[in-house]
Write a structure and sequence with these properties.
Layout (H helix, E strand, L loop, with lengths): L7 H12 L3 H14 L4 E7 L4 E6 L6 H7 L31 H8 L1 E7 L7 E6 L2 E7 L9 E7 L6 H5 L4 H18 L4 E6 H4 L18 E8 L2 E8 L9 E5 L2 E2 L4 H11 L3 H6 L13 E6 L5 E2 L10 E2 L2 H18 L53 E5 L6 E5 L5 E3 L13 H8 L19 H15 L8 H5 L2 E6 L3 E7 L23 E7 H22 L11 E13 H9 L1 H9 L3 E3 L1 H7 L13 E10 L3 H4 L4 H10 L3 H8 L27 H14 L9 H12 L12
Parallel strand pairs: 1-7, 10-12
Antiparallel strand pairs: 1-2, 2-6, 3-4, 3-6, 4-5, 8-9, 9-12, 10-11, 13-14, 15-16, 16-17, 18-19, 19-20, 21-23, 22-23
Helix pairs in contact: 1-4, 2-6, 8-10, 14-21, 14-22, 15-17, 16-20
């Protein structure tokens, strides 16, 4: 078998796909090129849905001759850079760019337009390259500049790699990734002004949310500026923690590092100190463990690092990793010691962990510098002696004041309040033997014989369970409880605290009072926490379902118009199989069912007559055809017009047997909601059983996406309004997802 060289176009295409793996990386490469031009301002704009982005800076600019070299395309425009280094200094890089491949790779995978002007130039020059082919080279028309600088505009990214596009996350996620990358560069280049624009929101097709992360206050940070030999560490560390590691920024020579061993060095030192415990004492008990927040840049001679490992330059090899780790660890320990965060947590129990009874005292063989205080002394639990029979021992927790009974052999514990007095000092050997041993004379009872009574140990165990359950009385909450609830306020920007007082009459309860469902007397009250997101989600989902189902029930009856629809101008084409299209065109029951739920088609008669899509010749018949959707339900029109939601809904309904659809269209099966039958505010529920599950899923999704979220601040009036609306729903204690 002979070995042949790949053609140059194939070589460049393969290399480009390896250099640029995502839309986020394209934006990152443009940012790095702008920062290498020593700018004072960098502007970035993106439209993730159209695969479009641009970066503009006021740096030194690119000359017309250099633009002509880039515009040659294919392999000629590759490996041309303004940051040239000698072969023996490839590891002594001080700029982001050095390969000369970024712009050439972008030109291979998209439509690239570069407009630039230098300080000596009298005009702005432009070059446009797509797929490695030069489309234009001359004076700029669109991005003309009055001063020096460069604008790089990328359109139709990955147009020739559809699989690469489909592998990308949703546009909202891509937008957040780009925003995070912009934060990474903005933190390490404080002298550069950055701006970020979501072109999609400016065009009126979406919304842009501001970044939720802000630099901590000056009073909450400690500035770091340390030197050790030829290494320097500067930046800051926050005195307040964060719920995740996304606010940890570590750089080496201004290269941002992804999570690596250096991050773990910092985390281990923080975890071994009292920093976590001090932060936890000030936080809500429902929040997770806090993580340190820091922005640190480690500067060292460039020849001691290697950042040629991957195109993103986020993985770096360091020549003397031990020295760097030691320097970084000493800096973190010095910060913790200066603020009184000793290393005592290494010898104490982690917060909110289950207590363990240990047979031997653990001795830690390390000690962190700066530890100045001893761990809080607690009464140790009794040691377990494995060489003697079991005995019941008492142990009191000094923190909670509770007394526990401990099996000295197994370590099993249970609260003294749940134990019988006579069991205090009993030996457990006979008890365990009785509980674990089965009689050898046990026989299987014959049919018709009296069932043997359960063993004594099982009876005692069940009694203990009932006794424990009785300590926590149950109560079934009703909508009437919410109507008389007294709103206290918002808790932790996640919950609404309410006080439900008892009623003097148990007949006021909506459900009967049983031994498992108690009613609250006037002197009793309950403090409850309502999930603000789930509550608002429940309100929204029932409002949407009511509009949809009530419109279905009223469709064509008593002069009402049924479901409110949104007209599609022009009609939206849907691609269906020939079988599905003919099934829809020839079945009046299917058409009536779609119309009942607000979905109407146009020109179905052409499909029925010719067996082809509207406007096509019958000779051009294929296995697929298009149908035109004229209108859709207004309540979920925004969901149905995104991606393939409408197509998936139509295909799901067409997949059902026609007799089932015919039965749903039967007027005798649809409840009458006229006259007195409309008096019930929940009459729309009778139409819910006819609603396709796909429509319900879309409504649930819309209700969830637009509901009040965690960390949304609510005043007392908004909390009261939320509880009041929740009390008017059918299922106030069930979220849209059925939980």
């Amino acid at each position: 078998m002979s070995i042949e060289q790949l053609p140059p176009p194939t070589q460049t295409r393969l290399r480009s796909t390896q250099i640029l793996t995502s839309f986020t990386q394209i934006v990152s490469e443009l940012l790095q090129n702008s920062l290498d031009a020593n700018p004072q301002r960098v502007d970035v704009g993106v439209d993730c849905e159209e695969w479009e982005c641009w970066a503009s800076d006021d740096g030194v600019g690119i000359s017309r001759e250099a633009l002509s070299v880039i515009g040659q395309g294919q392999d000629v425009g590759r490996y041309n850079t303004s940051k040239c280094y000698a072969a023996d200094t490839i590891n002594a890089l001080e700029t982001f760019g050095f390969r000369g491949e970024a712009l050439a790779s972008i030109a291979d995978l998209s439509c690239l337009e570069i407009c630039s002007r230098t300080a000596r130039s009298k005009d702005t020059w432009s070059v446009i390259v797509k797929g490695g082919k030069n489309l234009y080279n001359g004076s700029a028309v669109r991005w003309r500049r009055e001063s020096k600088g460069t604008t790089v505009h990328v359109r139709d990214a990955f147009y020739n790699l559809p699989v690469r596009r489909r592998s990308h996350p949703p546009p909202a996620r891509i937008l957040e990734q780009i925003r995070h990358d912009l934060e990474v560069y903005a933190l390490i280049f404080p002298s550069v002004s950055f701006s970020f624009r979501n072109l999609r929101s400016q065009r009126g097709a979406g919304s842009s949310r501001d970044s939720t992360w802000h630099i901590p206050k000056a009073s909450d940070i400690e500035v770091i500026d340390l030197v050790s030999g030829d290494m320097k560490l500067n930046g800051f560390i926050s005195l307040a923690g964060a719920p995740s590691k996304m606010y940890q920024f570590l750089y080496v020579n201004k290269y941002h590092l992804s999570q690596c061993d250096l991050h773990r060095v910092i985390d281990s030192i923080f975890a071994a100190s009292s920093f976590y415990r001090d932060v936890i004492s000030r936080r809500s008990p429902r929040k997770g463990e806090k993580r340190p927040v820091y922005v640190l840049n480690l500067t060292m001679p460039p020849e001691r690092i290697d950042n040629c490992l991957e195109p993103t330059k986020s993985a770096i090899h360091i020549q003397d990793m031990r020295a760097v780790s030691t320097f970084l660890a000493s800096a973190i320990q010095g910060f913790l010691a200066s603020h009184g965060y000793s290393g005592e947590a290494a010898n104490s129990e982690p917060p909110q962990k289950k207590r363990k009874i240990q047979g031997q005292q653990r001795n830690d063989d390390f000690e962190l510098s700066g530890a100045t205080t001893d761990p809080v002394r607690r009464t140790p639990p009794p040691c377990i002696d494995l060489n003697h029979d079991s005995k019941i021992l008492k142990w009191k927790d000094d923190r909670t004041g509770q007394t526990f009974l401990i099996d000295s052999r197994t370590g099993n514990t249970f609260a003294q309040a749940l134990a019988q007095p006579k069991e205090m000092n009993l030996r457990l050997s006979d008890y365990r033997e009785e509980r674990r041993t089965l009689s050898s004379q046990t026989t299987i009872p014959e049919e018709g014989s009296i069932r043997a009574s359960p063993p004594d140990w099982l009876i005692e165990a069940l009694k203990g369970g009932r006794q424990t359950e009785s300590l926590y009385p149950s109560h079934r909450f009703e909508r009437s409880d919410l109507r008389r609830a007294e709103v206290i306020g918002q808790v932790d920007c996640k919950f609404v605290a309410c006080l439900i007082r008892g009623t003097a009459n148990p007949l006021d309860c909506e459900s009967p009072v049983t031994e498992h469902n108690t009613w609250l007397s006037p002197v009793q009250s309950r403090l409850i926490l309502l999930d603000q997101h789930a509550a608002d989600e429940r309100i929204r989902v029932e409002r949407f379902l009511k509009e949809l189902c009530q419109g279905f029930l009223d469709n064509g009856k008593y002069g009402k118009n049924g479901i409110k629809v949104h007209d599609l101008v022009p009609p939206m084409p849907l691609l269906l199989t020939r079988h599905e299209g003919l099934k829809l065109a020839t079945s009046r029951d299917l058409q009536q069912f779609f119309e009942g739920w607000g979905i109407r088609f146009s020109r179905l008669s052409d499909v029925e007559t010719n067996g082809t899509e509207p406007g096509a010749n019958s000779k051009d018949a294929h296995d697929y055809l298009q149908v035109l959707v004229q209108c859709i339900p207004r309540v979920i029109s925004d969901k149905l017009t995104t991606k393939d939601e409408l197509r998936n809904l139509v295909k799901a309904i067409l997949g059902r047997p026609v007799p089932v659809i015919s039965g749903l269209n039967d007027n005798n099966n649809i409840p009458d909601t006229s006259g007195d039958n409309c008096a019930d505010e929940f009459s729309w529920l009778s139409g819910l059983r006819f609603c396709p599950q796909e429509l319900i899923d879309l409504i649930n999704s819309k209700a969830c996406r637009g509901a009040i979220m965690f960390n949304d601040s609510l005043n007392i009036e908004q909390c009261e309004n939320l509880v009041s609306q929740l009390s008017e729903t059918v299922f106030p204690f069930q979220c849209a997802h059925g939980r």
